[in-house]
Known about the structure:
51% of the residues lie in helices and 12% in strands. The chain is an alpha/beta fold. It has a single domain (2-235), classed as Rossmann fold (3-Layer(aba) Sandwich). A 6-stranded mixed sheet has the order 3-2-1-4-6-5, sandwiched between helices.
Amino acid sequence: xxxxxxxxxxxxxxxxxxxxxxxxxxxxxxxxxxxxxxxxxxxxxxxxxxxxxxxxxxxxxxxxxxxxxxxxxxxxxxxxxxxxxxxxxxxxxxxxxxxxxxxxxxxxxxxxxxxxxxxxxxxxxxxxxxxxxxxxxxxxxxxxxxxxxxxxxxxxxxxxxxxxxxxxxxxxxxxxxxxxxxxxxxxxxxxxxxxxxxxxxxxxxxxxxxxxxxxxxxxxxxxxxxxxxxxxxxxxx
Length: 237
């Protein structure tokens, strides 16, 4: 956890992510990244030197029309002393059964974002934290380059004027390997994804491509991340 806290502290300092009095909704899917983020933010409050609140929010997409089991996430939040809100949705049914999307990830992501933003506002939060990591940033940068022919990535911090919310990503310096190690050492109970296209997406192809290139040429991902930082696009400068 110490390493993850260091990465979060660095991101908060470099991108000015958290201020005194903030109330932050933390998107928690139950996956390794979101659990590590929630735990890190809960611990960060103890030594931040100023007060801020966090509130865990979880969306159940209800795959196959069934309620998902997020009882382990509730226990995790209780252990951290963090309020927890679970919202059941019909997003999976809309994306896969009604719309029968050939590119389900795009619509699903859009609907999830809207629902999470609504949950954050309902909880009285002024910020929402998502658990995108260093690896996610590199993958997104490469996906945009290869698929759309543009230089760009998600931002470490962005203001959503329509909802009057600030979106922050405190894990952007944390590599996936450190997050996995943190979860394993601390015995975090991971909620397995039930998405039918999990690990079958273009992002997964890019993830495997980058893994192979890193194996062949150590530092490959770091050089891409450094190029993103040097470009200064999307708030990365």
